[in-house]
Amino acid sequence: MHIHILGICGTFMGGLAALAREAGHRVTGCDLGVYPPMSHQLRALGIELIEGYSVDQLQLKPDVFVVGNVVSRSRLPDGMPKYPLMEAILDAGAPYTSGPQWLSEHVLQGRHVLAVAGTHGKTTTTAMLAWILESAGLQPGFLVGGVPLNFGVSAQLGSGRYFVIEADEFDTALFDKRSKFVHYRPRTVILNNLEFDHADIFDNLAAIERQFHHLVRTIPSTGRIVVNDLEESLARVLHQGCWSEVRSFGSAVADFTAQGEPHAFDVVQAGRTVARLEWGLGGVHNQLNALAAIAAADHVGVSPAVAVNALAKFQNVKRRMEVRARVAWGRPLATGETAAAVTVYDDFAHHPTAMRTTINGLRRQVGAARILAVFEPRSNTMKLGAMKSQLPWSLEESDLAFCHAGGLDWNAHQALASMSDRAHVASNVDAVVQQVMARVRPGDHILCMSNGGFGGIHQKLVDALQLS
Length: 468
What we know:
UDP-N-acetylmuramoyl-L-alanine:D-glutamate ligase, Protein-Tyrosine Phosphatase, Chain A, alpha/beta, seven-stranded mixed beta sheet
């Protein structure tokens, strides 16, 4: 089969392309931003990439066009379509489908799907679960919205029965406004947490809860729903109707709980200690992610003891509290030298709750050392200003905060006013770097948070630190 993917360089569609190629299909694709690292990864797999959405791609005559949810019927200021290829596909009556639908029919069919849903922690928890099954010898397939460091790739077909997938609630395509995850038909599902997000798609939290319940409706009676017992929103979802086995985690009375600090804790199942995990990750959020993955793996016969063994070797996901550099004052850090180091981190956090959780995790690691939180409100929800009032709360445990406010329609100065002189705002990345450099001290921790490339700010900070 020849498939041509529209929006191929997105995280999900790029992973789908890799899976299709591994399965032996001919894969081509196009996007507006064909650039590294995704372009290098795809071309290395023998996938032909085309810049833009030109009409002449119709002449490729694939068996089916697979349309990513980035594609719309919107028009440019001059009245021309933004995605002319999509218009040509519709005019020609050419065959097309969505990414989730193609994945369901050609990759997930006949496999035991383990899906990880939630507002936060999907990528990390999916990576944990895939690594647990891999370590247990089950040779799972997976599709993760990031690069798990244990695997080095975001997607793998796998030769076993199981397939682990990050299941997000984004809409499927311009012609299918259901959430992506309703296509996956999992037998095991993790509901990690649920808050309001994606303000450009959903009107309110109730609308997202309704989509989560659509997912619940697809779980067979012999399936398992692993649910965060600390989340009232998820309790409301299950209250709408549940027809499957439920296992809870998180609360003191849940089926799976933790006793101890996030970096070293006992796993307690049904009131009995079944394993102990000591690992390199910190933060209560990762402790909860681990419990969710352990409970899901338990459903397919992997014991908590085996799961914990795997998690002890779990290396996290790229761009999750990833240390980009430790720099001594004015020069690269010598081996073993730490006293005067400034540490620069890269993290994917962009929702206020995720930002607060990430900062809290770092605070637990570094104690009284100063944390400089550098962030950009880049997601559609944040650009709309739907959660701007939560920013001071999300940044509470940082010592200083630096906001890249370029392109916002709301006033970041006003949103951060309650933080007084702890908060700084700039309209471009270079100005943010200057603000940070004017205030950084030896021993500081600079935490950069964005769901995009952030204009290469990480390397710019490292370069500036080495030259200071």
